[in-house]
Specification:
Oligomer: single chain
Radius of gyration: 23 Å
Helix content: under 10%
Number of strands: 31
Shape: globular
Structural class: mainly beta
Largest sheet: 11 strands, antiparallel
Length: about 450
């Protein structure tokens, strides 16, 4: 580099032939991808403009590979060929075109056919090009109509208001139990920590006026859950702040939680309310205080916010919480080989009321401090789920031979129970009961 007549010192750089990055709605490389629905006037894909199985979609990104010629004079469209795998819901799709776009120099497009049997608002979407996975994004798919829905999030009716350019006011109250097992090396000893917590959120998601017709809304980027459809996994390669910035709603000074062990409160609104409910964490594994006996045992829990607040009226609702499912092969996890798939098994889930989440993360605290996480879902009565090896390939490896650099967790999560309150379009009650295993990702 030359600046004001002076050359800088030479610095080596690494150039790869193919390193595809997919464009996303939040401009951060995560969440809903920039996808056009080819069979619907090339509308921008979204919750209220979903694509159908069997239709053609156009995915946008950059880094698919070099072209022959100089793009400084303008784009050089053409199919680049080569091995390009589009993974929709972690399943392969038929690729129709992969190469430069005719619109812009250096911009790639991939035309593909959406596979059958997949639907949801946050269907995982990634591309393997040159043997390397792109960033993981999502796409909205509906079996009919143009509004997506999912069993663990918003319904078509909930999102109908967004297609009309109206805002959506949402409330949720969640109960959480985490039990983490730390199995000591070369020993049968297991250190256990238990933490119970609660959280409530009341928000208004607004359409962006210029793009309301295409459903570009805050809930599009985050939504109630953001979970993948059953039988698939989403990957989150970094920690980032929420780009949606919804408006917090005042539901009063506190949300009361009453169960078999008494009453506790979720506080610090408006918008977000939270509270530690109980648990024992002698080793600091969960980062909580030792709060005495656990609170979230099986039983019936009642929620209320008294007289309510200026934005959300008073409500009273109940949720039945069961025991945590049994993760039957938890003691066999220990070390996760990132080149192999991992199968987890469970028993005790109720298919009529809940589903299973299988998730984990890995960290490398050296240098750039890499982080990667994945979240998979499966039906409760499946009893087993295999995490594909390509999911693990996105995670950083263990930084050394000693200690743990990540976790795997399995648990039962309730299908949302709904409640009503003035000022809200929809309210959800949810429990999440997880068992964690400290592991090494190799």
């Amino acid at each position: 580099m030359n600046y004001q007549g002076f050359d800088s010192a030479a610095v080596p750089i690494h150039v790869e032939n193919t390193r595809l990055g997919l464009f996303t709605r939040n401009s951060a490389g995560s969440g809903p991808a920039i996808v056009q629905n080819g069979s619907a006037g090339y509308a921008l894909n979204g919750h209220t403009a979903a694509v159908h199985p069997g239709e053609v979609a156009v995915l946008w990104g950059t880094g698919l590979g070099p072209v022959t010629g100089n793009e400084a004079a303008g784009p050089l469209p053409g199919d680049l060929g080569g091995a390009v795998d589009v993974l929709v819901g972690n399943q392969p799709a038929r690729v129709l075109y992969r190469g430069r776009s005719g619109c812009c120099a250096g911009v790639d497009q991939i035309n593909f056919e959406v596979p059958p049997g997949i639907q949801g608002c946050f269907v995982p979407l990634a591309v393997r090009a040159g043997g390397v996975l792109s960033n993981f994004t999502t796409i909205s798919i509906a079996s009919n109509g143009r509004i997506c829905s999912g069993p663990h999030g918003f319904s078509t009716a909930d999102l109908q208001t967004l297609s009309q350019g109206s805002d959506l006011r949402v409330g949720s109250v969640e109960l959480f139990r985490g039990v983490i097992n730390l199995r000591m090396p070369n020993s049968t000893q297991v250190q256990v920590a238990t933490g119970d917590a609660g959280a409530a959120g009341f928000y208004r998601f607004q359409p962006v006026a210029a793009e309301a017709a295409q459903g570009f809304v805050g809930v599009e980027l985050r939504g109630f859950s953001g979970l993948a459809p059953f039988g698939s996994c989403n990957v989150f390669p970094f920690l980032s702040s929420d780009p949606t910035n919804p408006d917090g709603l005042d539901a009063g000074p506190a949300v009361n939680v009453t169960g078999p062990h008494g009453t506790k409160q979720l506080t610090n609104g408006p918008g977000a309310y939270s509270g530690d409910l109980g648990g024992n964490d002698p080793l600091g594994l969960l980062g909580i205080q030792n709060l005495g006996p656990p609170f979230l045992d099986p039983g019936t829990y009642t929620f209320d916010n008294g007289a309510g607040g200026p934005n959300v009226g008073g409500f009273r609702a109940t949720l039945n919480v069961p025991a945590t499912v049994t993760w039957t092969n938890a003691d066999q996890v220990g070390t996760v080989d990132r080149t192999k798939s991992l199968t987890v098994n469970w028993t005790g889930a109720d298919p009529a009321k809940e589903f299973i989440v299988i998730a984990g993360f890995s960290t490398d605290t050296r240098g750039a401090q890499a982080f990667g996480a994945y979240v998979c879902t499966e039906r409760a009565n499946a009893g087993t789920f295999t995490i594909p090896s390509f999911i693990f390939s996105t995670l950083p490896a263990s930084p050394g031979p000693n200690g743990y650099n990540g976790v795997v967790w399995v648990g039962n999560v309730s299908l949302p129970t709904r409640f009503t309150a003035s000022g809200l379009a929809v309210g959800f009650l949810v429990y999440e009961l997880f068992q964690y295993e400290a592991v090494n990702y190799k």
